[in-house]
Amino acid sequence: MPAEKKPMTKEMYLKQLEQFGSVIDRAQNDILRLGYHLQPPVGWLNDPNGLCQIGNDYHIYFQYSPFNAEGGNGLWGHMTSQDLLHFQEHEPAVYPDCAWDQHGAYSGSAYEEDGIYYVFYTGNVKYTDKKYDYTTAGREQNVILITSRDGYNFTEKELLMTNDDFPEDMSKHVRDPQVIRRNGRYYMLLGARTLSDKGCVLLYESDDLRRWEYKLRFTTENPFGYMWECPNYAEINGQGFLIACPQGLPSQGLDYANTYQCGSFKLDYTFGETDYQIGEFRELDRGFDFYAPQIFQDRQGRTLLIGWMGMPDSGYDNAPTLKNGWQHCLTIPRELYLTKEGHPAQRPIRELETIRGMGHEEHFTNTFSQNVSPLFDMELAFEKCESFTLRIRENALLSYDGDVLLLDISQCGRGRTTRGVRLQDIRNIRILSDSSTLELFINDGEEVFTTRIYDSMTGLSCEMKDAEARGTVTWYELCP
Ligand code: FRU
Questions:
Q1: Would you please indicate which residues are annotated as catalytic (active-site) residues?
Q2: pTM of the model
């Protein structure tokens, strides 16, 4: 069973890091570095992992491949933050250095009890023999546990489950554990693909966090994609939701436009029972770059979501950062809340207000125009909105014709073109812009568009034209 990629120990990482100084400098000096988003020090980043708060520090781990900006070795990078806008870098927390995770310490999450952080993740192993298809054979996805009291020092890896512990009709794709406690017992969710290519989430039960018993699977009656990655169970105002990333959904008009999806199912389930009700799937984000979010509760009781601002196998790229030795970032953290209609919606964390410069407010009728710096926070509150075209920064166009809201970044998207949503009315829009990112929150975050954007970053403005609209626009330069 020879290795396809080499495992990476801490010693190997430190040695390679020493020889990587000039690439790190280039990455860190790139003008496309972000002002208030978490980005890799160098190399590649994907999913956020192990989100938790210890004392005053948020700990954010992430899938990290420092020496290859196009992906590869799955380490767990590690940063801390007190405001989720400024980040301090630490040495990686997990290395793919043992037989159970030698081709990637894949995604996982943290569960806290009595000051101990139990971190569960997937150890990925791929056999090299090319005859394997990696779906039904030739790979292992192991559930591994490490624990910590401080978020920096972890215990030895413990192997909790292997593919043999998953139901017989499962393919080799079973991963991304999330653990919660309900009704006196522990529950683990795992994203999975069956042998007949049906996406689902496996639920395991335990009394001691170490021995796990299969309980049931959450899935839809009709197949909804072949694989569901990165499951999260979240309760918002007492309503349960299963948040997952289905792969293999064909796009339907404006819906499911990305290669892979991410959204929520309303889930009515009393943990421990055998029946559940699963509702309709709702996309969490309509932009080009949003995937694999993780949800956790902080000490203020907020339900926070942080996503990966990226999309696997997308056909568009980030060549401008890639050429400087880094790729991808995480989204602005968002607080989840429930709309009047009972749907999950997202609002950017209120900490953003602490980095706002002076605000300028303007009442507009039909048009307005404003010069902006690349880092800004803009709020549009409509009194009337029948139609408009809003040019954002240099060449991103957001338009509304009374029916469809369309984001067109063909001019500055590196292959990203248009994404849209049907909307009966538009009450407000919040635009967060960082050097090379845009996040649009429509109608108090009922719909969200997240994307990377590559324009000249100079001479930027926002301009509303062709509008049948009236309202107030407020903009702030962000000064992180
Ligand atoms: C989602 C994902 C996870 C996996 C991780 C590996 O982006 O594919 O399912 O654990 O990335 O980096």
A1: 47
A2: 0.98
Secondary structure letter of residue 355 according to DSSP: G
Q: What is the DSSP string of 437-477?
A: EEEEEETTTTEEEEEE-----SS-EEEEEEEEEEEEEEEEE
Cα 78 to middle of ligand 1, angstroms: 17
Nearest CA, atom 1, ligand 1? 292
How far apart, in whole angstroms, are the C-alpha atoms of residue 32 and residue 345? 29
Q: Which residues line ligand 1 (CB under 6 A)?
A: 46-47, 63, 74, 106-107, 122, 175-176, 229-230, 291-292, 312
Output helix, strand, coil percentages for the chain, rounded to the nearest 5.
5, 55, 40
Which of these, 317, 330, 312, 248, lies nearest to 281 by C-alpha position?
248
- The alpha-carbon radius of gyration of the chain (Å, integer) is 22
Atom of ligand 1 nearest to the CA of 106: 10
- Amino acid identity of residue 187, one-letter, is Y
Which residue has its alpha carbon closest to ligand 1 atom 8?
229
Please, how many CA atoms are within 13 Å of residue 140, restricted to the half-sphere of its CB? 22
How far is the C-alpha of 211 from the C-alpha of 205, rounded, in Å?
8
Could you report the per-residue pLDDT of 66-103, keeping only the tens digit for each?
A: 999 999 889 999 999 999 999 999 999 999 999 999 99
